[in-house]
Amino acid sequence: MSYQPNTGGGNNITTDISDAVDNARLVTYKCGDCDQEVKLKRGEPIRCRNCGHRVLYKQRTTRMVQFEAR
User: Fold this and answer.
1) What does the pLDDT look like over 27-66, one tens digit per residue?
2) pLDDT of residue 51
3) Are the C-beta atoms of 55 and 30 separated by less than 8 Å?
4) Rounded to 5, what percent of the chain is helix, strand, coil?
5) How far apart are CA 32 and CA 52, in angstroms?
6) Which domains does the chain show, CATH number per domain?
7) How are strands ordered across the β-sheet holding 27-31?
8) How many CB atoms lie within 10 A of CB 53?
9) In this model, does residue 9 exceed pLDDT 70?
């Protein structure tokens, strides 16, 4: 038996982390005309990829938001 270095396992970890960072930078909007979800990166033109409409609505957060009343 000869020594065979592990070449496939270590590279997937770095690509998975970079994919997670890229997905974290995407913001999901909803088109005002065709109601399709549009994911945009920072600096991309604000335009629906399906119909070209320029009015996009930002989706609300799924986290619970709690305010303290005075």
Assistant:
1) 999 999 999 999 999 999 999 999 999 999 998 888 888 8
2) 94
3) no
4) 25, 15, 60
5) 11
6) 28-63 (2.20.28.30)
7) 37-40, 27-31, 56-58
8) 15
9) no
